[in-house]
Design a protein that fits this description.
The chain is an all-alpha fold. It has helices at residues 5-32, 39-75. It has two helices and no strands.
Length: 77
């Protein structure tokens, strides 16, 4: 089976980009944990937590697609 490096490169790039978004979301949530103690700020912090969780799901999906493509390329399944 001929290697499809362009496909793997694209999947790897998508995974890495998703991880970078996830890191940014975690840092944003962390920043909001260090602000004034008022309800509006707590609501923003809580929303940041939901956003981080959604991005984490995106990362896991991108990782699975990349891993599946690697298995297919290397092992043929």
């Amino acid at each position: 089976m001929e290697p499809d490096h362009a496909r793997l490169d694209n999947l790897q790039g998508a995974y890495k980009a998703a991880v970078e978004q996830w890191i940014a979301a975690i840092k944003h949530e962390e920043d909001l944990a260090s602000v004034d103690h008022d309800v509006a700020k707590i609501d923003l912090w809580e929303q940041a937590s939901f956003d981080e969780d959604a991005i984490r799901t995106t990362v896991k999906d991108a990782k699975k697609r990349y891993e599946d493509a690697l298995r297919e390329q290397i092992f043929g399944f």
